[in-house]
Amino acid sequence: xxxxxxxxxxxxxxxxxxxxxxxxxxxxxxxxxxxxxxxxxxxxxxxxxxxxxxxxxxxxxxxxxxxxxxxxxxxxxxxxxxxxxxxxxxxxxxxxxxxxxxxxxxxxxxxxxxxxxxxxxxxxxxxxxxxxxxxxxxxxxxxxx
Amino acid sequence: xxxxxxxxxxxxxxxxxxxxxxxxxxxxxxxxxxxxxxxxxxxxxxxxxxxxxxxxxxxxxxxxxxxxxxxxxxxxxxxxxxxxxxxxxxxxxxxxxxxxxxxxxxxxxxxxxxxxxxxxxxxxxxxxxxxxxxxxxxxxxxxxx
Amino acid sequence: xxxxxxxxxxxxxxxxxxxxxxxxxxxxxxxxxxxxxxxxxxxxxxxxxxxxxxxxxxxxxxxxxxxxxxxxxxxxxxxxxxx
Amino acid sequence: xxxxxxxxxxxxxxxxxxxxxxxxxxxxxxxxxxxxxxxxxxxxxxxxxxxxxxxxxxxxxxxxxxxxxxxxxxxxxxxxxxx
Lengths: 145, 145, 83, 83
What we know:
Structural class of chain C: alpha+beta
Number of helices of chain C: 3
Strand order of the largest sheet of chain C: 2-1-7-4-5
Number of strands of chain A: 9
CATH architecture of chain A: Alpha-Beta Complex
Helix content of chain C: 25-40%
Radius of gyration of chain A: 15 Å
Number of domains of chain A: 1
Order of helices and strands of chain C: EHEEHHEEEE
CATH class of chain A: Alpha Beta
Distance between the termini of chain C: 36 Å
Radius of gyration of chain C: 12 Å
CATH superfamily of chain C: Beta-grasp domain
Oligomer: heterotetramer
Distance between the termini of chain A: 30 Å
């Protein structure tokens, strides 16, 4: 498991600990009052088809750059104290963690808005692709907004 | 630490593990694709005053009843797979966890909406009171929307 | 007997967690406030100024509700849970 | 030399991760597509149908961008990260 202390935007094969990632973010400030977390996980079915295998691939360097841009813009535009983003690549089991976004603020309102914006922005701008293998075969999934 | 497996709405003195609470919720279904978490934590300052002590008190039975109502209504109204709510009482240190709300759905949109609704609803309907001790003395905090 | 419970700052004002009143089989909240005002006029004033919500048996009720022998009445200052 | 990178289904179509072209000091993306279409007409078609985004040195650019010797061009099918 790669450590939460390495970087606030990461793409990695290893799983992450939500508790550790949150505790690391808490160190940013003693004035955090609200933390919103989005955790994307592997679902068993996709459009009615049972998933046999789930895999993520990314464009190294560009993907990390886009996550860093989302983090900086999110902190500035929503007045956050801090934000972190971790996305896993490679094989994912059903129920496993895929993506984690943590937004920290003095109050909760901005953390909800920023967290929802950040996951939409990640889907829109970050070069990561999902490959699903179902009974119908293997497909590279098209973006779902 | 009281265990995540005890109940999906709890009021307790002990801290909780966000990871354990999430993993417990994941057991509800193999079709969870999005999980939103709100975590409220103890801030160092309140209205510019430094906080020396933070304490929560609740009305037993009624508070648990209200949390159960929020959980049931949230699952039904937002079409969630599951929801859990844990609130701590007693003394809270700066940076410590106070409240945790987890909303699980097939997709992320409903989990964000439900989580934000649930924390507002908790503040509005659940008999829990915060007592802050600052340099100006001890105050029972009035609700902040 | 009905039980009246005090919370947060009301507990400090009342100097106690709860008290009991014998007001017969059925009565109104107004009569409960009347009974409270005998010893705790400050709390009766807060109720009249609507700075307190009232729950009977764990649900919030309107101030003209009827209460029965055995009910638990709670005087609830504005909530501040949730961070 | 410029480097062209293929991802996801494009990698499968191309049968490779990347290839290199020598197109001088400065050229246009149109000339890059022309070079790709020599061996991978399928991919050139996807580009013309705007089913692919293009990044130069890790930022998305418009399809009439100018590219320079040493640039890294990436052909990006629609993203699907984030769960």
